[in-house]
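> call design_seq(struct)
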């Protein structure tokens, strides 16, 4: 399986990151120990969303979509609003 995930910074909840991986737990660990340059400054991170795909290409296409202007709008309207923010948990 391939996973598209979204993480949210615990220290700066407005900071999020979308990526693709085969192992969500391991990838989150790499984000949290600073091994991912794009997310290093906003540690620690928490998973806020993930979706599973059987095909790598479909996962990357969905990741690219979520990073596009239309995908960001879709995420705000349909995905992220149903996910509680860290202070709401």
């Amino acid at each position: 399986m391939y996973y598209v995930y979204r993480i949210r910074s615990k220290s700066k909840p407005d900071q999020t990151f979308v990526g693709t991986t085969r192992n969500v737990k391991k990838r989150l660990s790499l984000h949290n120990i600073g091994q991912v340059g794009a997310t290093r400054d906003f540690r620690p991170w928490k998973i806020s969303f993930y979706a599973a795909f059987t095909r790598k290409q479909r996962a990357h296409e969905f990741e690219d979509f979520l990073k596009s202007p239309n995908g960001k709008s879709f995420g705000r309207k349909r995905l992220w609003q149903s996910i509680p923010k860290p202070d709401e948990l």
